[in-house]
Design goal:
CATH topology of the largest domain: Collagenase (Catalytic Domain)
CATH class of the largest domain: Alpha Beta
Shape: elongated
Structural class: mainly beta
Oligomer: single chain
Length: about 425
């Protein structure tokens, strides 16, 4: 685990306007939840958080966040044309847009003073609110007073594992101002697990501007986006791992952030996964991106392994998979090509109809009713009336055995046929 403090140096900083490719947030409305995902795969979810006594600036901050992410994504692709961070998107009336949650924190601004205290408290509170997912990292824009005058952001995470957090302290580093897209890029790398152990240029007292041992940052070039301090230069003037020898695109044996699961591979084909339904229920994937109750199609990186789970609706039961999935257990798929699966659901109870021809009855175990739980054991026994005998079953049961145990996966209709025994009259003898 690594925690980085992105600190302003005394050098004159340059202010960079939001990315030229950005045009504000295209979503609408405030919600404190993570909306249903519109993209598939491990992803980065964005949150705007305000202290309990803060002002609601969400409308403006959502535009800032969207502009930052557009700018940072364009910069990232410029550094590596084959990769880009995969951000959480949601479907809005106007189209598919960045999913941004707005959270009113339970504590006042005074509780978030001191960068290490603020980060730990903020993270624990957001996790308690449900922002805790193995396949998601989180970027948080904190819209409150500066937690420390020279701290721009804080990030912490583990390589290739979710639940990493990158926090941009919006009112930190205000004088001179520091472009927030660069802060977001720096802290997101920490959430992804940078700087990994083994990086040769990790800061030492001889190379660190603060003259301390700082293994969470590289100190080989101030132009590196992960350098421990910033002079306020725009993100476009920074590089993603100077010389590619510490954390991105290196040839060493230690973890490479280029291979983290939160990056979409732009050079990898996308393959569709279509889920259809028979009956009422839901299908969800272990990786974010698929949660359907009606026929849906999602796009995945070719070669992704995804596991699908089926959940029946109230009054229904899951019967089986068909198509690309078979059986009744969770289904694991390697998406090497376009794949279609169908989840088959059926009512949780089935109707039971018992009929007789002739005189007699059908005795049930357990006691008969008009319905029975699907799949439940049911034993029927034919009981002829006095002077009658049992002939045979028809319908769900067949044969002449006196007892029958019909399958209850579907409606049960059984008829027991009885026949009257012949009457033997005594013969009178003539005298």
């Amino acid at each position: 685990m690594r925690r980085a403090l992105f600190v302003v140096s005394a050098a004159l900083a340059l202010w960079l306007a939001p990315g030229a490719l950005a045009s504000g947030w295209c979503g609408a409305g405030e919600t404190a939840i993570d909306r249903p995902d519109a993209v598939a795969g491990a992803q980065v979810h964005v949150i705007v958080a305000a202290p309990a006594d803060g002002v609601d600036n969400f409308a403006a901050e959502a535009n800032t966040v969207a502009d930052d992410i557009a700018s940072m994504s364009a910069w990232w692709v410029g550094q590596d044309p084959t990769r880009v961070p995969r951000y959480d998107l949601a479907n809005f009336p106007g189209g598919t847009c960045l999913d941004i949650s707005y959270v009113r924190l339970p504590s006042p601004a005074s509780a978030y003073q001191g960068s290490s205290v603020a980060f730990g408290l903020l993270r624990s509170q957001l996790e308690a609110m449900g922002f805790f997912n193995f396949y998601k990292d989180y970027v948080v824009y904190y819209d409150g007073p500066a937690v420390s005058p020279d701290v721009c952001g804080t990030g912490q995470g583990t390589f290739d594992q979710g639940q990493g957090y990158a926090v941009v302290w919006l009112n930190g580093c205000a004088s001179p101002p520091v472009p927030t897209d660069g802060i977001e890029a720096h802290e997101l790398l920490h959430a992804f697990g940078a700087l990994p152990a083994g990086a040769p240029n990790a800061c030492t007292p001889a190379t660190d501007p603060f003259k301390v041992f700082d293994p969470g940052h590289p100190c080989d070039s101030p132009s590196d986006v992960l350098y421990p301090v910033t002079d306020g230069r725009p993100l476009q003037d920074m590089v993603l791992d100077f010389n590619h020898d510490d954390y991105y695109g290196h040839s060493g044996t230690w973890p490479d952030i280029r291979n983290v699961i939160f990056l979409r591979h732009l050079d990898t084909p996308q393959v569709p996964l279509t889920v259809s339904f028979s009956g009422s229920g839901a299908v969800a994937s272990d990786l974010p991106g698929l949660a359907c109750t009606l026929t849906c199609t999602t796009q995945w990186d070719q070669g992704t392994n995804v596991t699908l789970s089926a959940s029946p609706a109230n009054g229904s039961r899951f019967v089986r998979w068909s198509g690309g999935c078979l059986g009744t257990a969770s289904c694991s798929l390697d998406l090497t090509q376009a794949t279609s699966v169908t989840a088959v659901f059926a009512p949780a109870t089935v109707a039971v109809r018992l009929l007789t021809t002739g005189k007699g009855k059908i005795v049930c175990s357990p006691a008969c009713s008009k319905t029975v739980s699907a799949g439940a054991g049911l034993r029927l026994r034919a009981a002829p009336a006095q002077g009658w005998k049992f002939l045979h079953w028809s319908g769900t049961c067949t044969g002449t055995a006196i007892a029958c145990s019909p399958h209850t996966d579907a409606a049960v209709t059984v008829r027991a046929t009885f026949k009257k025994l012949p009457v033997h009259r005594p013969v009178k003898k003539k005298r």
